[in-house]
Amino acid sequence: MGKKDTNVRMSLQTLRVLEVFLENPTEKLAGADVHQRCGIASGTLYPILLRLESAGWFVSQWESIDPASVGRPRRRLYRLTSTGLRRTSEVFASFNRGVLA
Amino acid sequence: MSQRNERSTQAELSGVSHWLIHHAAHLAPESLSSRLEEEWLADLESRSSALSRLRFAVGCCWASMVIVNDCPRSQVPAASPVAAARGFITLADRSFGYFSLRSATLFLIAGLHAALFYGLITTLSHTRGIVPPPILENQALKDVPREKVSVPQSLTRDWTFAVPKPDVEIPSALLPSDHVTTNVGEELIEPYAPPLPVTPTHVVARVAGGPGAGFPDTADFYPSHSILLGEQGFSTVRVCVDSHGRLTSDPTTVQSSGSSRLDEGALKLARAGSGHFRATTEDGQPVNSCYPVGIRFQLKK
Q1: Nearest Cα to B214, choosing from B185, B237, B244?
Q2: Which of A42, A57, A66 to mutate to test the interface with B (most CBs of B within 10 A)?
């Protein structure tokens, strides 16, 4: 097993997604929630979520509900990992210093 | 009726959206296909309007292509969603150094446009350079056989006019002394008067003047700044010279060399050459005249 590559290419859309999660780092958000908060279209949003998940910044899991009782399908929820939180903080700190990491 | 149509349209759009998401999920890597389909269908339910759902579904198609680009289908292990995520981790973020695939494509397109533009410009200039100038040829006209033209009889009549006598009496005081006849009404006006004989004119042999013996050397008036800057050029000044080769007025620049320094140097040279100009001669006799003098400033190699 090689070491996980935690580097993610930073784009403006990626930063906006991270900013949404950084508002409440423990909150679990579905793709639809992220779309509502930052307005990124699905064609851009889901590849970003998958990249961040594959880099270990996010973890995702299915919503623990009963679809029949709630009346809607279960959603995939994303949450910042401790690595993701640290790396996100570093990225935003570097921006505050005026240097892109 | 219109509400019913609207409902059916929304139902159709919803069906299209579901089909697009299904299609998009199948485009995605196999290990992620079922997960993405369920996730996208769940997120689709949060959209209220049919148009918004359609946009979401179209976006999912695009997302699938991006995900495929990030994670090639053949290298993703077909396993559970967790395993799929792990497989995705190892192949994440296919980028070309500092550039993404999209940026690389954009640079490629921009480069192709630049190359085409450069090629067009250089080809045009090259073509313009090798096109030979149009050749103007003088062609001597061959002797055209002259045919005798027969003039109609109506045009060969005598073109003389008889002017009727006016009813005006001319006072005798106004008549010239060598008056021959005043019977205007009876005299015929000749239609053509023969040309007067041309007397031969004297052609003056004029030889234009120029810099003569003892004229100063150009090198003595080469501006030092121009020497330092490597400036070279040809300046033409107009000088007015008397019969003794002296300037009768201050010389002026008629054609600049392109450098004000060299032009000024040429004027100084012309002023210094006063008295050393050759006067223009007419029939061998020196006369006052004005003429242009070309002065070349050229650095020795």
Answers
A1: B244
A2: A42
CATH number for the domain spanning A82: value is 1.10.10.10
Place of tokens 């799929």: B84
Token readout for B276 is 């050393």
Q: Report if residue A39 sits inside a domain.
A: yes
Write down the ipTM of this complex.
Answer: 0.86
**B90, B123, B153 - which closes a domain:** B90
**The domain that contains B250 carries what CATH number?**
3.30.1150
CB contact under 8 A, B43 and A8: no
Residue B65: both structure tokens together: 């292509």
What is the count of structural domains for chain B? 2
Query: Which position has the token pair 């990992």?
Result: A81
CB contact under 8 A, A5 and B41: no
| d(CA A67, nearest CA chain B) in Å | 10
* Interface contact B93-A8, CB threshold 8 A: yes
Q: What is the pLDDT along chain A (101 residues), one digit of tens a residue?
A: 445 667 888 889 999 999 999 989 899 999 999 999 999 999 999 999 999 999 999 999 999 988 889 888 999 999 999 999 999 988 888 876 655 44
Q: Does B54 touch chain A (CB under 8 A)?
A: no
pTM above 0.80, yes or no: no
Within 8 A of B34 by CB-CB distance, chain A residues are: none
Cα separation, B97 vs B160, whole angstroms = 104
DSSP structure class, residue B157: S
